[in-house]
Structure formats: C-alpha cells, structure tokens
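Predict the 3D structure for this chain.
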Amino acid sequence: MKAILIVSVFIIICNVSALDACPKCGKTLVPYPLSTDENCGNPSYKVYCNNNILQFLSADGFFYDILTIDPDAFSLVISPPLLQKNSCYSADLSSGGFKLDENLPFNISSRNTVMLFNCSTSILLSPLNCSTNSICRDFERSEMGSGCTDTLCCHYKKDASMTAHRIRIRLGGCTSYTCIVDAKPGDPIESWNYGIELQWSPPFSSRRQ
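Done. Predicted structure below.
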C-alpha cells in the first residue's frame, strides 16, 4: 500500500511539472520552473522569449542570451556580453557588468572562471591572478579578445568567498570581462566553454498542487 502511494505521488508530481512547463522558445525547451509567461512555469523564475531567442534579464535591465539549460542540475548558462567593436569595453559596461536580483532564486555558480580586462593598477592590490601566466593573456591573443591586447588583465574563480550575485566592471576599474564554465588548469583556449553559469534554488514548495 505504501509503495503504491509513493508511486502515485511521483506520477502526480511529474504530471504537474509537465503541465507547468512553458512552450518552446524558438527551438529551445523551457523546462519547469523557468517561466516565459504568467500561465506557465513559476513566476519567480522569469526568463524572456524575444524573437524566438530565450533570454535572461539582469537586475539592471540587460538581456543575456540563454545558451543551455540543465534542469537536473538546476542550472542554465547565459552568454557573456560581447566586446564593443575595436575596444575593450563590454556591452554591459553602462550597467556595471552583470548583476542578479538578490530577491530571486538565482546565483552565480562557483564553476565560473571570470576574466577582467583593461583594469586600473589598483586591482594589483587584490588577490586576483594578474600575472603574465593568467589565462586572460590567452584570451587577449585570440580574435575575440584582440581589442584588449596588452591591457592589465586578471582572472579568478568565482567561489563562496565572493558575491554570488555580481560580476562588476566600471570605468576607472576594469572595463570588460568574459567568463568560462568548468575550466580546468591547462585547458587549451579552443576547448573553453564561454558562458556564465547560473544556478537556481529548486521550488519544491512553490509548485501548484
């Protein structure tokens, strides 16, 4: 009897999850709890379907394309901002970089390695790796990073000691950044997985019953 009850509850939960899932955005699946509309998903996990492209909105109103979603790991990866042409300025510089609303159930994953470019010398007082061996030098030598060649750059692994809600850039500090997910020491630049991984807290108590 107990086994039957457990199976029944499992089936009900699965069915509710399927009913709550939002329609595809273009070719991209939108799994629960992500929500593109008030009639599907969970509104606390809001994402946007703009011109058939699934996007995430920062706390400062900047849209980032969603590259991948892993509902089993409660995570998604957004595209880092592009560098403005022939410059070392990230497209989201005017909003101070990437910032999450701390009232929402998302945080920046500790699997991210952030590279900062065109930094002021004050950053040398920080614990970041700004040495000639920093992986940011490899990015500078690539076509994507050519606008930042020979600037002061640094990299760091996003971990629990740092804010889980912001990657900050600014004039007078560092003016651009990029990010790679799940980087391993010695990985060649050709294997880098560009993106900013976000994790969400599972909404077990918030699904409609």
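Residues 110 and 159 are 5 Å apart (CA to CA).
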